[in-house]
Amino acid sequence: MSATATAGATPVPQAGFRPPNIALTTLGLALASFMQVLDLTIANVSLPTISGNLGGSANQATWVITSFAVSNAIALPLTGWLTRHFGERKLFVWATFLFVIASLLCGLAGSMGQLVTARALQGFVAGPMYPITQALLISIYPPHKRGQAIALLAMVTVVAPIAGPILGGWITDNYSWEWIFFINVPIGIFASLVVGSQLRGRPERLEKPKMDYVGLVTLVIGVGALQTLLDLGNDHDWFRSNLIVILSIVSAIALTVFVIWELTDKDPIVDLRLFRHRNFSAGTAAMVIAYAAFFSVGILVPLWLQRNLGFTPIWAGFATAPIGILPVLLTPFVGKYAHKFDLRWLATIAFIAMSMTSFARAGFNLDVDFRHIAMVQLFQGFGVALFFMPVLQILLSDLQPHEIAAGSGLATFMRTLGGSFAASLTTYAWTERGAVHHAHLTEKISTYDPGTIEKLTLMGGGDLQKGAAMMEQMISNQAAQIGFNEIFHLLGIVFLVVILFVWIAKPPFGAKVGPSAAGGH
C-alpha cells in the first residue's frame, strides 16, 4: 500500500457484496458505457450540418471530434489515481452526471467554440467511465459469472460505434443535430441514479495519494500533443508541416519524461508498473494491435463504400452494420461458457476469422455487390464476438482486485491510442498507395497518341474532354481499389501476428478474488 494511504485503512472484503437488484445495476452500468462509447462516433456524420448551423468551417468542425478524443485520451490513464482518491462508486456517479451536463452544454452551444469546449469537457469526464464500469461489473458478479459481465461490455464496445453514425444520421435528418447530445441526458441521469443507489454501502478502501504534478503535466502535454498530431496529420501533410514537426518533438520529449518519472516516482499518477504482470502485458499488446486493425476496418470500409462505390452515408451504414449482429447474438453464450475453454484458443479463432475477412476484402473489386459486402461484415462479427471478452479477461486475469480499475483504464488508453494511430496511418496509406498506382496506370497513356484520342472521344460521346474526365475517374477509382486491397492484405497478416501475443499469456485466466476490489493500492 502507498505510503500516502489513509492512516489506519485496512483491506475491506468485497467478494460478498451484491447490489439489491443485480440486473438493474447491470442495466445502469451498460447504458452508461453504451452512451459514452456511442458519443465517440455519433457526431461524425453530422459535422457538415453542425458547421453549417454554427457558421464554422470544415476544419473547425473536425475539432468537435478532436477535442473529445484528446481530452478522453488524457483522462483515461488517470482512472487509477481518481479511483484511489474518490472510490469507484462515487467516481462513476459523478463522471456520469458530469457527462450529462457536458452533453447538455453541447446541445445548447451557440457557436463552434462553445461546442468544442463542451466536447472537450465531455471527453474528459467520459475517460474513467468505461474502465470504472468494467471494474464495478467484475466486483458485483461472482467469479464464475465475471466472464459474462466482461462479455456484456465487449458487446457494447462493438455495437455502439456501429450504431453511432446510423443513429446520428437519422437524428440529424429527422430532427436536429442538437438531439444527438440531448439523448444522453435521460440515459445518463437514469444510469447515475440507479448505480448510485444500488451500490450504496459498497465497501471501498480510499487513499489520499499525493498529486503527482510532474506526471500530470507531462501526461497532458505528451498525450495532448500526440493525439492532436494524429488527428491533424493527414490534413497538414504530416512532417511537411512545421506544426506536425513541433507537436512530434513536444510529444516525444514529454512522454519520455513521463515514462521515466512514473517508473521511478513513489506515488505515480499512472501506475506503469502494472506491466510487470505477464498476462496484462501480453493481453494489452494483443488488444492494442488487434483493435488498431479492427478500427482500421471500421474506418476504411465506409470511406471506400462512399468514395469508390457511390454509396450514400446511410446505405454505407447499412452495409457495414451486419458486423454487429453475431456479437449481439453470441456474446451472452461466450460469456457463459468461455470459462470451459482455454481463452487463448477462443482469441486465436477470433483472429483467424478476422484475418479471413480481411483477405476476402483484399479480393474485392469495383463491381462487388451489397450482399457480398454485408456477408463479409457478418462473418467478421463472428470473430468480433470471440475477440473482446477473451482478450479482456486475459489482460485482467493476473491483476490484483485493487489494480483492476487502474489496469482497465491503462489498457483502454492504450487501445484508444492504437485506434488513433490506425485511423491516421491507414487513411494516409490508402491515399499514398492510390497515388502510386494512379501513376503506374497512367504512365503509358498519352493524350498525343491518335489511338488514345480516338478512344477517349468515343468514350465521351464525341467529346474528347468529357471522355478524358471519364477515363481519369475510372483510373482514380481503380488505383484506389488496388490500394484498398493492399491494405486489407496487410491487415489480414496483422491479425495472424496478434495470435503470437495471446499465447505469451499463461493460465489461469479466472478473475482473482481478494481483499479490496476498490481502487486503492
From TrEMBL:
CDD domains recorded: MFS_LmrB_MDR_like
Keyword Nucleotide-binding included in the entry's annotation: no
Membrane-spanning residues: 22-43, 63-82, 91-112, 124-142, 149-171, 177-199, 211-230, 242-261, 282-305, 311-333, 345-364, 370-392, 487-505
InterPro entries named among the record's database cross-references: EmrB-like, MFS, MFS_dom, MFS_trans_sf
PANTHER family: MAJOR FACILITATOR SUPERFAMILY (PTHR23501), MULTIDRUG EXPORT PROTEIN EMRB-RELATED (PTHR23501:SF174)
Family listed: Belongs to the major facilitator superfamily. EmrB family.
Protein name: DHA2 family multidrug resistance protein
Organism: Luteimonas cucumeris
Lineage: Bacteria, Pseudomonadati, Pseudomonadota, Gammaproteobacteria, Lysobacterales
